[in-house]
Amino acid sequence: MVASSISQTRVWFITGCSSGFGRALAEAVLERGETVVLTARNLQQVEDLAASFRDSTLSIQLDVTKPEEVKEAVKKAIAFFGRIDVLVNNAGCEVAGVIEEVPDQEVRREFETNFFGVLEVLRAVLPHMRQQRSGHILNFSSIACFRAGAGGGIYGSSKFALEGISGSLANEVAPFGIKVTMVEPGWFRTDFFRRSYVLMDTQIEDYKPLINEISQWVVPVQEMKAKAPGDPKKAALAIIKAVDSDNPPTRLALGADTVKTIEAALEFIKAELDAWREVSVSTDFDEVVANEAQLV
Length: 296
Ligand SMILES: NC(=O)c1ccc[n+]([C@@H]2O[C@H](COP(=O)([O-])OP(=O)(O)OC[C@H]3O[C@@H](n4cnc5c(N)ncnc54)[C@H](OP(=O)(O)O)[C@@H]3O)[C@@H](O)[C@H]2O)c1
Prior knowledge:
By secondary structure, this protein is α/β, with parallel strands linked by helices. Helix content is 50%, strand content 15%. It is globular.
């Protein structure tokens, strides 16, 4: 099946369109007349959106942890629309718990989605973007990369891993006209804590107070009795603004909470760097230090 007329608008390929950011972004992009490859693990969850925007959507079942499904989904999208202009690696999940205790199986499950799943999608889409000499990739990271919350280490490490490849990828693909942006949301009112988040209980007495403290925060959120400040619809507009820009950011912080957290993290890093500067710079070979002194 091929689209009747190849879309002149940008084609967005978004993972995890069933809810939250993925859904809000797909809606916003479609409402402004662009084209979306709606991907979801369960296609029933995007049926209504596909029905409302029949001519500008293609729905494809996609679990990012299944490499064959990823390859097939990208192949179908390219065969249908002829191109992918914007790739949004949005799908993600969190297994929270203490580092000493979260089972390896759960750690690996988290990385399969948040890191290896994204890697698989990137590797399927990049050949097309390189060939078309254009494209924009958005990788959903998190405020977690700037705030080392107790109990959030496994999630944070999966997002750090993603940030690790995103920076290098940006440098690798810039010569081919491809841009890369890390999207760093704070706390947003999506389905995340109800559907995509699991808090592991602890069997270790020492950690019980911490897990209790986290549950006291998480349970009301899961029951939707506590409200996150961030609006996913506004986040979608901010992301579109970044994609529209001739000079998009490498990192797009979303939410006043993220901005504050990043500012605090930068101040802390600067203060620590200054406090330990002498020790830090004392490790170069003597001849290097002497040469530098001569150059000054
Ligand atoms: N909400 C926040 O406060 C917040 C903050 C920082 C970062 N984030 C990041 O934002 C992104 C989107 O999350 P959200 O807040 O919008 O939560 P959400 O409403 O729960 O959406 C998560 C999406 O990811 C999909 N997903 C999970 N595992 C998948 C897999 N293996 N294959 C394909 N899709 C999968 C889910 O699909 P199903 O419907 O099939 O489960 C769902 O569509 C995530 O990467 C998350 O880490 C969220």
